[in-house]
């Protein structure tokens, strides 16, 4: 576009033209598959608009001609001028339909605060009326189930839990329970048959050590073979000697 034509368009469109020029100036590192068509909105602009408006139809239409690899790249690498990822944009409006997309990475970090989308969703909810809290709780629960990590700290050193309004007890409890379950996920194991058999002798010995009367000890004994019985008898005799 020639300089004189650009000036004429700028005068006609006013702020709208300026905004578009600023957007194109700063968003120059487009993800693969994302064009900057001067005759219309770019793929990045359409995706950002879809996430801000909770518009799944626009999202689907924009990505319909893309491969799975291109879709994943576009959803996770497209950012706004302010450094927000698409997931942040959806979270900043509480747009649950856009947050529930399988190709999103759960914990991208934005440029300004170092927030994850979970941080962003909680900031949004803190500003909403109390009547929105049940919805906000369900939204955060969905994000946690999808894999959002509540232990990530932003640039201020704050986790998502630390951003929650202190009066929102239910949301705080939800996040704390999720943190506990995540931290202890490896502590719950299923014993196999051999481990169970090996533990019987230890259980029998512990029962014998805690009982003084032989008839009570026999009643408590749960051994199932001769070796276990012999070990239990030996430990009982040693106990009586002391």
TrEMBL record:
Compositionally biased tracts (Low complexity): 199-208
Organism domain of life: Eukaryota
Biased composition (Acidic residues): 214-230
Each ANK repeat, start to end: 113-155
Disordered: annotated span: 199-242
The protein, known as: Ankyrin repeat domain containing protein
UniProtKB keywords: ANK repeat
Organism of origin: Moelleriella libera RCEF 2490
């Amino acid at each position: 576009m020639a300089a004189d034509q650009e000036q004429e368009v700028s005068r006609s469109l006013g702020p709208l033209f300026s905004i578009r020029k600023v957007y194109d100036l700063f968003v120059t590192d487009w993800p693969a598959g994302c064009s900057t068509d001067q005759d219309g909105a770019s793929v990045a602009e359409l995706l950002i608009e879809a996430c801000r408006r909770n518009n799944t139809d626009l999202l689907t239409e924009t990505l319909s001609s893309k491969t799975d690899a291109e879709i994943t790249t576009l959803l996770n690498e497209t950012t706004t001028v302010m450094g927000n990822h698409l997931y942040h944009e959806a979270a900043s409006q509480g747009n649950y339909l856009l947050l529930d997309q399988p190709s999103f990475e759960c914990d991208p970090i934005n440029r300004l605060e170092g927030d994850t989308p979970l941080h962003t969703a909680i900031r949004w909810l803190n500003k909403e009326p109390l009547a929105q809290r049940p919805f906000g709780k369900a939204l955060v629960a969905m994000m946690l189930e999808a894999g959002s990590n509540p232990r990530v700290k932003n640039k201020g050193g704050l986790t998502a839990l630390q951003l929650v309004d202190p009066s929102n007890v239910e949301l705080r409890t939800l996040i704390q329970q999720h943190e506990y379950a995540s931290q202890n996920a490896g502590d719950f194991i299923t014993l196999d048959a051999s481990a169970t058999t090996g533990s019987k002798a230890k259980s029998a010995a512990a029962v014998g050590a805690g009982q003084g009367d032989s008839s009570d000890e026999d009643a408590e004994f749960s051994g199932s073979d001769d070796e276990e019985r012999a070990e239990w008898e030996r430990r009982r005799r040693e106990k009586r000697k002391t």
